[in-house]
Design goal:
Blueprint: H1 3-38, H2 44-58, H3 62-77, H4 83-108, H5 112-120, H6 125-155, H7 167-178, H8 182-213, H9 233-238
Length: about 240
């Protein structure tokens, strides 16, 4: 790999991958909480509408949705935007649907006695959610959020198919120029692993901090890959297995 190509294409591609991951994760996070909370609402129409969002975007292809945003929306609505915007929007909306199920499952895993205590204290539903349910559910959301964030990181490679110059796009260009596949794709695999490992360690620290705030014991550290935890109740409820 020439220094010119590395400086002009590969390093910017790595930065674009980081940007797409963070922006998509932020959008998914913003979507997940209101949708997840609304899916626990007492009104059936609210649950129906929130559930419809979840079912629609859980059941559609992220890649096809990305193509639809990038190539169908601009001519139909006579607007233009950068391909990166289409990629972030498609990934954020799709993974927001998956994350909303984690939020719903975590809230469902809060013991009913806790809600009853809030009712006995004459808390409003919003107060019960803010003071009782979310503080207890948040530590249980983090491990499945971690798994979903890693899936999102790997899913960012799809943006290369709409001409976004991420590191997968840059690696594919280099493969065409050098006519070599093994070293380039091995490097890409290693980079995705490194990024996923960094994200995992960051989320483990966040999980331990969140558990301390609610008086729960943090996971036991066991060396380089310490902090890995067994499957929890929320993993079963949300259908997301924790990393082991």
């Amino acid at each position: 790999m020439s220094s010119e190509f590395f400086g002009n294409w590969f390093l910017p591609g790595i930065w674009i991958t980081v940007q797409v991951t963070l922006l998509s994760a932020a959008l998914a996070f913003v979507i997940a909480f209101p949708i997840g909370v609304l899916r626990t609402n007492r009104l059936w129409i609210v649950r129906l509408l929130a559930g419809a969002y979840f079912e629609i975007f859980r059941s559609t292809s992220s890649l096809v949705f990305m193509f639809w945003i990038a190539f169908t929306v601009p001519p139909v609505f006579n607007i233009s935007f950068q391909p990166m915007f289409a990629g972030v929007l498609a990934l954020g909306i799709t993974y927001g649907a998956y994350a909303s199920e984690i939020v719903r499952g975590a809230l469902a895993a809060v013991p009913p006695a806790q809600r009853e205590a809030g009712i006995a204290l004459n808390f409003t539903p919003a107060q019960r959610l803010r003071r009782i349910e979310l503080p207890q559910a948040w530590p249980e959301m983090i491990p499945p959020f971690n798994n979903l964030l890693i899936e999102l990181l790997k899913g960012t490679s799809l943006v290369s198919l709409i001409a976004v110059g991420d590191m997968t796009f840059a690696g594919d260009l280099l493969r065409l120029v050098k006519n070599e596949s093994a070293p380039i794709y091995t490097l890409l695999l290693a980079l995705y692993f490194v990024f996923a490992f960094i994200l995992t360690r960051g989320m483990r620290l966040l999980e331990r901090h969140a558990k301390k705030r609610v008086g729960q014991a943090p996971a036991t550290k066991t060396g380089l890959f310490g902090g890995m935890r067994a499957t929890s109740s929320i993993d079963a409820v949300a259908g997301t297995g924790a990393a082991k």
